[in-house]
Amino acid sequence: MENEKRTEIATLGEFGLIDHLTRSFPLKNRESILGVGDDAALIDNQGQLTVVSTDLLLEGIHFDLMYYPLKHLGYKSIVVNLSDICAMNARPKQVTVSIGLSNRFSVEAVDELYAGIQAACDFYGVDLVGGDTSSSLQGLVISVTAIGQVTPEKKVLRSTAKVGDIICVTGDLGGAYLGLQILEREKQIFLNQPETKPDLEDQQYIVGRQLKPEARLDMIEQFEKSGVIPTAMIDISDGLASDLKHICKQSGVGAFIEESGVPIHPQSEQMALKFKLDPITCALSGGEDYELLFTIDPKDLNKVRVMSDIYMMGEIVDAKDGIKLHTKGGNLHDLTAQGWNHF
Amino acid sequence: MENEKRTEIATLGEFGLIDHLTRSFPLKNRESILGVGDDAALIDNQGQLTVVSTDLLLEGIHFDLMYYPLKHLGYKSIVVNLSDICAMNARPKQVTVSIGLSNRFSVEAVDELYAGIQAACDFYGVDLVGGDTSSSLQGLVISVTAIGQVTPEKKVLRSTAKVGDIICVTGDLGGAYLGLQILEREKQIFLNQPETKPDLEDQQYIVGRQLKPEARLDMIEQFEKSGVIPTAMIDISDGLASDLKHICKQSGVGAFIEESGVPIHPQSEQMALKFKLDPITCALSGGEDYELLFTIDPKDLNKVRVMSDIYMMGEIVDAKDGIKLHTKGGNLHDLTAQGWNHF
After folding, report:
1. ipTM
2. Claim to verify: residue A208 and residue A321 sit in the same structural domain
3. What is the pTM of this model?
4. Alpha-carbon gap, residue A99 to A37, rounded angstroms
5. Is A2 helix (H, G, I), strand (E, B) or coil?
6. CA B116 – CA B72 distance, rounded (Å)
7. CB distance B98–A58 less than 8 Å?
8. What backbone torsions phi and psi does residue A106 show, to the nearest 5 degrees?
9. Which of A316, B22, B155, B188 could hold B36 in an S-S bridge, CB 3.0 to 4.6 Å?
10. Helix (H, G, I), strand (E, B) or coil at B153
11. Domain final residue pick, B123, B154, B185
């Protein structure tokens, strides 16, 4: 039909598209506590809450098999979902895995993928309870749904940060992005000179941040042990700036981040400079680090100070003060979210 | 690496591949009651069970957008998952929907898809609680996970049919397959002569069986009302023969099916003959009817007789007697499962 209106998806962007598509789906069931818009959904079972999160990984969009070993890909496809469950302060328990495979994949290749899936399931103590397999006309399609559990009083949403809360993160940022830059560079070198061996030796840490990220279940366990419940939490998949913006928007608050408080690994710093990139930009917009970004009530400060792997980066402020970065040079900039936009 | 062993996936087939990939995933969590191998997984919440099922739909494999309207596709993508939840005798409550879209799709096109998703969510009273959207290099990708609830005593597995149980189905079979044949034929005619209008007028019923299948939630409600709990159940997605084989294999039993008991709609019968196909073969191997295939204890026979939409087709027998079709002509044939094999 030639006269139909055609709006390009790119005009909405990923989050705009999700808002657009899901705004006319009000929740109907009493058990559906929380739907679209957080890291995971919450379902009430008269006691424990069931936490559900799902991710779709498509070849050529989310991964390039030229430098992504299938075993790592399997591991990561589980981890990125468990990370969403952890971001609700919940314990992951089960996963379902669906895959679409073209006939260029052999059983041995799929076994590699599942060896990675199994390694992740074993490491995090989760059960593979279902899935679907299909052939695919094109590339590899992986869809994972993770299911977790949390008690109602311990669940942590994105929408509950309060003015005065301290903004924390569980590890250094920007490494996964810079690891990807190295893999992309080596791919180009390989395509031009196939006899060249890839040069990844000095950058094991950041390449590992890209190829084998971990979900911070250990931090959820630390929170439990220390009796700390963050006031809001999200996992960093799109980048600190983009993910902090989600917390601020949904909580109706602003944020101040101190540049000097943003943890950056020395290897990330060096590699950024080598690529002529600003290290702080990589840390703010890089994405895929899968660290937990969370806020705590100042009264919990003493408990949090003694926990390992926690970096304090700033403070939640009034919405009218915006989302700002206080640079080492003393300037105040808007914290712009570049994030990953797949459209 | 040239010397690596390469086994084609086609040598295993879909079910063989699933077995192969999942056999080394024992369940670790106390809450994981049932994992891979039934219509859905079961998770214990100290009371209600959470039921989880997931399906992946890929363009060119599971649907052809030349004759599949996006709204119908959205509706069907939900229904096929709810059908799996119903097949556990459970009530569907929530769904997550992930989509991968290439840039040939406009926002209006995606809206059509979601209008169908919403129509299904509304009709079945389920909540959309999450998902993921991404661009895709590979055409349209739809991954749905459905979540339901059932009490432990009412759950129905595939593995619990007993010798002497009556085999029943909730509706006529083969229609969806024959509807697909019509759509494929009209597509070929259109490709050859684009000015021809598609001729679907006389076959509304079977085309509808393909384009707008329903999950038999109404039957789950009837079971509840009548106090009947089937001894085993599965939904017919791959075809009666293939799906009955799942029940028999997992229950360690055999089955006798009476050809005269297999419900076939008059329109399916006529259309099969027009396509020079055997109507019973279409009913046995057609697939995608999404009726419930279940077994009942003979003591429930009187309760089931008065329920609408139930057809009795045969009986569960000893495993050593195999899975047989007793034809109208009085012969006994092996019931061979052709089903859909996507590999």
Report:
1. 0.88
2. yes
3. 0.90
4. 25
5. coil
6. 6
7. no
8. -95, 170
9. B22
10. helix
11. B154
